[in-house]
């Protein structure tokens, strides 16, 4: 899990020709079959996500003043690059402050206060769950009311929104590719019924509401599909070959209209997202499924 641990073994895995499949991070670099043919991500990449936010801001809030908080590592910088690329030449001047934080910091409260002082009316929140919950709480505490974009990494109701407080989280915008296990509207959905049954039987102590559980299940279902397609030819080379030839595979937990597709030149299994807005105690989808084309 995470960009730094996978980056640490990235070259080693490829030198030793070990399939490093469905890496749990959205860094763009996992989609580089030419230089790293043994590594493949799973979730939509970070640059795709912030490019989609940028498109939305340019269309709906062309005069926005944007403040950005990002984690000072590959993960945070990837998201930031997607945002600046998406805003383009004109849009870059819309960013009034880019503020980074270190994961070793106990709290990011001082960064939030600093960003509010810029007078920004749009806040791009590129943080991991612990810091995302802190940011949501602090924004409410200091009565800052920007349009708040929260990266998908921290959009989990169970691990971020609920601890931060539903009342503090209203109208936050994010992007989704997975069904939200906390949303009762999926209760009769065949794919989610399989997920709930799996959790009850095989992982009863797990938190069904945690987005991470849904990701893990979706990645595991994808791996089962790859191994099934391998048949009895379970060589490393064939495992990578099958992983790179998935066509419209739906592991049951992806939103309607989103499917997994890979090819020998495209190691980004999921490249579609839908914008969501937090209302009441759940995320509501709005707009169309948006495809982002960001290469490795």
UniProtKB/TrEMBL annotation:
Tell me if Signal is a UniProt keyword of this record.
Answer: yes
Q: Which residues form the Leucine-binding protein domain?
A: 5-279
The reply to whether Ligase figures as a keyword in the UniProt entry is: no
Alphabetic keyword roster: Signal
Check the record and name the Pfam families matching this protein.
Answer: Peripla_BP_6
What InterPro entries would the database entry show?
Answer: Leu-bd, Peripla_BP_I
Q: Which domain of life does the protein's organism represent?
A: Bacteria
The record's Gene3D superfamilies line, in alphabetical order, gives: 3.40.50.2300
The positions making up the signal sequence are none
State the family it belongs to. Answer: Belongs to the leucine-binding protein family.
Output this protein's name.
Branched-chain amino acid ABC transporter substrate-binding protein
